[in-house]
Write the structure tokens for this entry.
Amino acid sequence: MSVSSIQRQIESVQREIESLHRQLSNEASKEATKSDRVASISRSISSSSSLSTIKSKQREAQGLERDIASIQKRKADIQKKIADKTAGSTKGDILLLLRTSFS
């Protein structure tokens, strides 16, 4: 494997890691938005007197909590991918360093 081939592979992995970081940021933003909505619903429940309104808001909050759990799972999956890619990239960097040192 040539040095330029290794460099291209490393650059490709780095681009993939950057893309994963953007995905992670997007998911975190979605999570924050939904968490804010849950907090808002909780505040409005405390000021509501109608039982049907309270139940409706509780169902909405539960749906948002399920969404948040899904987002957290996706974030964990993305973080694992980043860790795997980072470990692979580090190995490639070491291989490149060794190849250029002994060439």
